[in-house]
Structures are given as structure tokens and as C-alpha cells.
Design a protein that fits this description.
Keywords: Cell outer membrane, Membrane, Signal, TPR repeat, Transport
Number of helices: 13
Helix content: 25-40%
Strand order of the largest sheet: 22-30-29-24-27-26
CATH architecture of the largest domain: 3-Layer(bab) Sandwich
Family: Belongs to the bacterial secretin family.
Number of domains: 5
CATH topology of the largest domain: Phage tail protein beta-alpha-beta fold
GO molecular function: carbohydrate binding
Shape: extended
Number of strands: 30
Structural class: alpha+beta
CATH class of the largest domain: Alpha Beta
Protein name: General secretion pathway protein GspD
Organism: Chitinimonas arctica
Strand content: 35-45%
Amino acid sequence: MPIFTTAPGRTLILLVLLGLGGCAADRHHRAGLSAMADGQYAEAIRELQQAAELEPRDTRFRADWLQQRETAVRQLLSRAETALAAGREAEAEQHYRAILSFDRDNARAKAGLVQLTRLAQAVDATGRARTALQQGDSEQAAQWLARALADNPNHAEAKALRREIETLQAKDLLSAPSLGAMYQKPINLEFRDASLKMVFEALSRTTGINFIFDREVRGDQRTTVFLKQTGLEDAIDVILTTNQLDKKILNAGSVLIYPNTGGKSREYQDLLVKAFYLANSEAKQTANLLKTVLKLKEVYVDDKLNMLILRETPDTIALAEKLIALQDLDEPEVMLEVEVLEVKRSRLLDLGVKLTDQLTVAPLTNNASNSTTNAASPSFKLSELRNLNASKLGITLPSATMTFHQEDGDAKLLANPRIRVRDREKAKILIGDKVPIVTTTSTSTGFNSENIQYMDVGLKLEVEPDVHLRDEIGLKVALEVSSLVGAVKTTNGSQAYQIGTRSANSVLRLKDGETQVLAGLISDEDRSSANRLPLLGDLPLLGRLFSSQKDDKQRTEIVLSITPRLIRNIQRQSPAAESFWSGTEASLWTKPLQLRNLETPVAVAKPLAAAEPAAKPSEAVPAPVGLRLSWQGPSQAKLGETIQLSLRLDSAEALRAAPMQLLFDPSRLEVVSVRLGDFFGTAPVSFSQLVDSASGRITVGLAGTGPEGVSGQGSLLLIELKPLQADPAVEFSLVGIAPLGPRAAPSLPLRHPLAIVP
């Protein structure tokens, strides 16, 4: 008979199956906890869920499943948010999908996937907007940006691009029309004692530009003009200035002319309102700068927002922008690394025999014949003096104390603070205690009051840095070391303290990272005292048996080590931004009154009375390009092998000097040599180079010693580099050059990409 047909058999089979199910559930439970510990959350939750389903009656399995599922969801959400913030969208998507693999209804994971989809759409729309902006279609770019910000309002690249478009639109809206777009050819003017309106009529016929006169411009005003090969706008400015007139360009082909008086200027000159939000300088100081340099009368200052608002002419606003850019620079900061070491050594030796310095002889009283009485006040009769003998006198012998005491002490107090401070601000360091000083005040009514003030006792250091442009730091150092010597009670019962002080003040000038040690604050005390028996204590050697000597030596020295490290220095503007034209004492202009020659065939405009029509000028020849720079060298280098880069120069104009600066990554590249190229040929050249391997900066001084420069093509610099560490994306950059001779400078930085392979 089969075993499963009987009741005991079926019970046995059921028990076996239940046992096997319990073993399987326990196995899945252990596997889930192990996977959870290894960070494999999706696999761990599946194993724990299977354990709970195999043993639905075991609450322990179900509780662990639910608890670990919440933990896994929390950990994966945190990782997804971190990856999303770092720009790793693919990794964030993996974490969100891992959550949905074991928790299909998790709302935050679903919202995260939706956010990733919208982010991808925003990135695509932003890329299309940038392409449209590069093609000059700002309206289409604005539409794409609107879609991008609708999908992701916090998209940083889209917001920056929108700001760029708004800036360009504001410039287009506020830009004044120019005559250069209407007529770009040079002109000649030859008028002697001619009517002013006649001159402008000739200009109008030659150039096609309309001139409109204010009613107060005198028609009989006469002028004399002889100009050759001059730009149209320069010629008009000279004619108007010499006749106390001014102009307002209405469009590219129309000019309004009016008298240069205060009333007419206020009537015709357009004013621009501009707000300046300052990041570093104070609004009041900047307002004072503008009032002093530009002679502005009204500047609105908002201290809360650190903002300035101006309402001035466009030229004045442009000058104010340049001045504010020169002043509103990041403040330098310095990290001060200070080490203070106080070394104290003490030596105490107390050695010898100390005897009492009195021997007392006194008569004995009747009540104490075998002992001495108080020697200070013996009591006896005068008649008894005749009967004094050895049996009636008592002697108090001196006592002797032998001392064998020696102390050796060494103490060190080390403080190593690091403090960050702004330029020309005091940094204060105090290591010590505050000692209470009690002051008692009494009134005529008998009322007494106590006032407690605290005095700093210990090590006090004050440092004020002054950052210079050459990465040097001036330091005003004030060091004071004080200690509590003792306490003294006054007549009224108050307690005063005796404080010992050592101080040092110095002014230093250190380089970035240079360490200076200040030492010499030494307190050396040597005290010696002796207690000897007269005559016997002065004997050599044996005198030690009849004397006691105490030698106390204490020496304290303070050593200060200070190292300034420059965190940020002043980033100066370019030389062109540090000096600019500002007009005359009477008016503010962004360019000087000048006549620029145009080297092209010109039209000659003569007085109308000559009855000769002015000939049209020929087209202008484009001006030669100033210079072109380019890198020549390999784009890939093997680790440990030396490569050479050449800085090529193509200059149509004579180059006399070219000081420059270059940057490199010192952890990736080593500069082996910097040599002069063949551009200057055999011409005498002054060449210098300085390689700062710590900061990764190369400073090159290059100047021809002859009066004339050199033009043409060739190699300006030859640089040998040695790769130190593999990196697929390393750059060697020219970040600054000041060419002397060519009228134009190249766009910087000029980078040379380099891939370093093992």
C-alpha cells in the first residue's frame, strides 16, 4: 500500500514539505540580508520578499522585508539625487528603475523618471537655442529657451543663456546709431571762410546724409576747413566742436545739429538709467569715486542692496562702468599658518645642613630643675644671681635639618592655529585666560559697589596682512606673552595682580608660502641663596656640613613661526582697461576728438562756389591684420617622453616686443626648457624666462633691442615638455601677451590640447 494513501503517511509528507519550506524561507532570508549588507538592494528585497511569501505566518520575515525595503528605497533615492545634482543622469535613472523593480508604486521614483525626461528635453531645447543664437536668430533662441525653462525652471545653462540673450537685446535696444554704417569711405574737405551750412550741404551731397539744424544755429556762421583722407564722423565732430555746436544722430542717415549750450544739451541729449550691483566694494566708496573722477552731482546709493543707480548720458555711463570695473575687484585673502612654541626649563637644587641661628642659656626655675624654661622671660630673684652655677643653668641646643631636594622641569606649550583673513584686516589669536580685576567704588553715603573687569593673560597675537600685486604679503605682527606673577592685596581688601609681560612688534614682507621665525623672547632667571654657619660654613668642602644652599634656575623662551599662504590676489584688469579716454574738462566722452587717416583714395569736396562737383571716393582697402598666433606640436604624448611645442607667429606689422604669460598643469607636465624661436632671425633680442613649477606659470620677457621691429612668419617660442602623469585632457595655454608694434592683439587664451598616454 502506498504511504501517501494512509493518514499517518499524508501527515508525514506534509511535515516534510513544511520543513523544506521553512528551510527555503530561512535560506532566502539570509541571502537577502547578505545582499543588503553588500549594497545590492534590488536582489536583497527580492530574496526577503520570497522568504516572507514562503512563510506568511512568520512575522519576523515580513517585518524584515518591509523594513529593509524602506531602507533600500531611502538609500537609492539619496544616490539618485546625488547623481542628478552631479549631472550623471544615466546613473540616476538606474537608481530610480532599481526602486521600481521591487516597489512598482513608489511615487518618488516615478517622479524622478519624469524629471529626468523633462531634463533631457530641456537639455535638447537649450542646445537648439544656442545653435539659433550662434546663427543670429535671437527670437528663435528665446522660444527654445522658454520651452527648456518650462520643462526645468532651474536649468542653469538655460538660465545663463537667457541672461546672455537679454544682455544682447538690451545692448541692441540701448545702442546709439552710428554714421559709420552709412558712409565708410574717407573724404577730403577744402573750405576757406565758407558758410557753415554750405559745408554741411557739400557733405550731404557727397555722402547722402541728411543734416537737420536747430533754429538757433546761425546761418551766417563761417568756418575754414582743410581735411584730407578723414573719416566722415571724425570730420563732423571737428567741425562742430570748433564752432561750439553738437550733434545728435537720429539714424544711420540723419544728424541733428544744435548749439552746444547748457539749455540745448539738456533738451536734446538722451539720458540713460543704469543700475550697478556691487559685489566687493562698498556703494558709498564707489559713489565717492564717481563724484570725484567724473564730477557727477547725483548718484543714488542703496546700502541694503549695495547698489548704485545713475541717470546720465551714455558716454558717462560707459565711463562709470569702466571705473566700477576697476574698483569692484575680489578682495585678496590670506591663510595664516601660525606656530607658537613656549619652552620652559626649570632647575632647582636645595642641598645642605640648615642649623638654627640661636643658642639660648637661661637659669632653671625651682619647679623645673631638669628642664629649661622659656628663655625669653626667666623669673628669678636678683639675690639668686650669686648662687648661679652649672647645675642651675639650662642651654637650648641649636637644631639641624639636612635637605636633599632637587627638581628638574621641562614644559612646552605648542599652538598651531590656522586663520583666514582678508587684506588689511586684523586677525587676532588669544591663547590663555581672562583674569578678573575687581574695582571697588565707595560713595559718600557709605555704599560700596564692586565692578569686575577681565584682563587677557596668556599668548596674544595680532597680524594684519597687506597683499601686494607680485604675490608678496606684508605683515604687521604684534606678539604679547603675559603671565600671572602674583597677587597683591590693597589696603581696602581688594586683590590686585602682578602680571609679567613680554612683547614684540615687527613689520615683515614675505613671499607666498615663505616661513619667518621670530625668536628671542627669553626670560632667564638664576637665583642662588645660602644659609651658612659663620666661619665654619666658609671652609672648603667641610663647609657643606655647616651650610645649606638653594640654586633656582628658570628659563623661558617664546618662538613664533608664521607662514602666509595667498588664497586669492587682486586680479588686475588689462592695461587697456586701466587707462581710457574720458573727454575734456567741459564734457565727458569715451573717445578723444581726433582725425584718423584712412589710407584709401578719397573724394574731394570743394566749396559750392567753385561749381565743381565732388568726385566719389573709391572703396577703402582693408587694413592689414595685426598678428596671428598658433600652436604647433603633437596632440598626444607618451608618459616620460619629451615633446616640443612651437608658438608660431604670423605678423604683417613689425613686432618690437612681446612679453607673455603661459599656464600649465604642474602635476601633469614638467617644463624642461623654454627657448627663443627663429622669428627674429639674426636681429638682436633681449630674452628672459621664469618657470614657476609650483603655480604652473611661465613668464617670458621678449623685446628687440633695435629701433625697428620684425614682421613675417616664424617660431616665437620653443618649449620642451615632459609628461608626468597620464591624462586624456591636458592643456598648455597662452593666457597673456602684450605685443608692441601691431595694432591688434590676438584673442586669448590660446590653448593647445594634449593627451598623455601610458
